[in-house]
Amino acid sequence: MSITEFLEARLDEDEKVASAADLISTGLDSPPFSTRYDELADHIVRWRPARILAEVNARRLMLDLAYEATGLDMDRDLDRALGSRERSGVAYVGDRMLRSMAMPYAGHPDYDDAWRL
Questions:
Q1: What's the pTM?
Q2: Fewer CB within 10 Å, N or C, the chain?
Q3: Contact 78, 72 (CB under 8 A)
Q4: Under a CB-based contact definition with an 8 Å cutoff, are residues 49 and 21 in contact?
Q5: What is the helix, strand, coil percentage profile of the chain, to 5?
């Protein structure tokens, strides 16, 4: 699995979970969850489904930009190019962007340790 396929799959998963949670809260007169802890309530509000969906869309745009920055064909497997770029230039930045975007998913079984920065 290439890093780009991995990222697309994780974004699809995030979108699916957030969309399902958004459906639960649609039409409710009050929030479906409550807590006495202000810090926890702030966290729950911050990660509401609508925000996650917006972040998924933003990350998809960043993924497209990273593809473009590598200078490679978007339909090709980018694994062969990761780490092989000079430490300067747009292509190097594109490779690093892809690796950075994969970092939050490092605990996933499909994550490849070769992608670590």
A1: 0.72
A2: C
A3: yes
A4: yes
A5: 65, 0, 35
pLDDT in tens, 1-27: 889 899 999 999 999 988 887 666 555
Structure tokens at 79: 């694994």
Sign of the CA dihedral with 46 first, then 47, 50, and 52 last: positive
Q: Which helix (H) or strand (E) holds 88?
A: none
Task: Tell which wins on pLDDT, 94 or 100.
Answer: 100
Rounded CA separation 53/114 (Å): 28
Res 79: pLDDT? 47
Q: What is the pLDDT of residue 80?
A: 47
Give the orientation angle of helix 49-70 with respect to helix 90-102, to 10 degrees: 150
Mean pLDDT of the chain: 78
Token pair, residue 105, equals: 């998913």
CA–CA distance, 7 with 41 (Å, rounded to integer): 29
| Crossing angle of helices 90-102 and 3-25, rounded to 10° | 50
